[in-house]
Write a sequence for this structure.
């Protein structure tokens, strides 16, 4: 299994593949620490001990935990589906979690936040399983078709959720839960994100198994991997992180899609080496987008989901356009230069 993993990891080597992982991790930690320090000093209220420990530190820590966990979740999703253009928000997991959360808000609105997180995680679990089952039935191997199907799948679930919320006069409340925003993070309300971070740590421990699973079911089974067990673990991690973030921070679009792709282009496809860098880059990107959202219209705030949606949408389109290839056997025709008739006549003579 190790030889096959090494061979697969060396198929794609980025420009930073030869740089020591320790050096890259140190650079990432320094970047995250610098952005976190800036985040602590941005705010309307005057900074004192109470504001620092009740609001600023919890918000900054939640930004780091959410960014790291959701970015790693996107990497797992891409390995399980074997497509680089998928993540929970583009495959129906987030939409299914919103539908489950809406059901809880309609039936038992007084349920504690951990109960809402469990319900959202169960909904996300159903959504992920449904998308994976749907993706396996796609006959074409186009890298673009799978995310398009995921967007359509999520759009159907999202449309049904919006319709139900509209009929129940709960559309505004649903949007308040679903929009990614860290302005309401306070001490005592963000600690569930440590559970999401623990799930990301489990993904790093099982990184080699996820990498082998990304080779395909037949290859992974031939190498002795329990594919069902690793798929179940991956789906549970995705559902747990998605459900927790839906309740605590709201959805952050495109984060789990663009960060693994950027890291893969820089260092290659070795997941064990990529997971720490994906976590650090995810945390840095979330911190940066949150800082931008707080400064653009200071003292007002723009939700991080808006800023991340703009940045992630642009990077997503760039990835699609730079990676798309002709499919279905259609290839550009080569124009041949016609031979002169005089040459043909001379040949006949």
């Amino acid at each position: 299994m190790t030889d096959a993993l090494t061979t697969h990891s060396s198929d794609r080597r980025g420009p930073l593949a030869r740089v020591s992982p320790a050096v890259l991790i140190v650079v990432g930690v320094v970047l995250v620490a610098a952005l976190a320090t800036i985040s602590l000093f941005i705010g309307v209220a005057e900074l004192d001990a109470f504001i620092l420990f009740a609001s600023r530190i919890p918000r900054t820590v939640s930004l780091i935990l959410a960014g790291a966990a959701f970015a790693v979740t996107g990497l797992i999703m891409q390995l399980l589906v074997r497509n680089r253009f998928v993540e929970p928000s583009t495959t129906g997991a987030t939409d299914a979690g919103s539908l489950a959360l809406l059901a809880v808000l309609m039936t038992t609105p007084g349920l504690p936040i951990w109960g809402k997180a469990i319900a959202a995680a169960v909904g996300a679990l159903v959504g992920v399983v449904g998308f994976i089952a749907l993706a396996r039935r796609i006959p074409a191997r186009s890298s673009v078709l799978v995310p398009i199907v995921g967007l359509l799948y999520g759009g159907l679930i999202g449309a049904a959720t919006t319709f139900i919320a509209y009929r129940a006069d709960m559309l505004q409340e649903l949007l308040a839960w679903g929009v990614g925003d860290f302005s309401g993070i306070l001490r005592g309300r963000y600690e569930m994100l440590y559970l999401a971070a623990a799930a990301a740590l489990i993904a790093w421990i099982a990184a080699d198994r996820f990498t082998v699973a990304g080779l395909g079911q037949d290859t992974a089974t031939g190498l002795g991997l329990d594919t069902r067990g690793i798929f179940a673990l991956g789906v549970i991690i995705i559902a747990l992180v998605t459900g927790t973030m839906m309740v605590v921070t709201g959805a952050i679009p495109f984060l789990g899609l663009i960060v693994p792709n950027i890291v893969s282009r820089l260092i290659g496809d070795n997941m064990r080496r990529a997971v720490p860098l994906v976590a650090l880059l995810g945390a840095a990107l979330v911190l940066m987008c949150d800082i931008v959202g707080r400064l653009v219209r200071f003292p007002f705030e723009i939700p991080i989901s808006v800023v991340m949606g703009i940045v992630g949408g642009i990077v997503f389109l760039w990835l699609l356009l730079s990676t798309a290839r002709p499919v279905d056997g259609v290839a550009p025709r080569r124009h041949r230069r016609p031979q002169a008739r005089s040459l043909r006549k001379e040949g006949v003579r």
Summary: The first helix runs from residue 2 to 9. Residues 1-11, 326-335, 338-349 have pLDDT under 50 and may be disordered. The chain has one domain: 19-324.
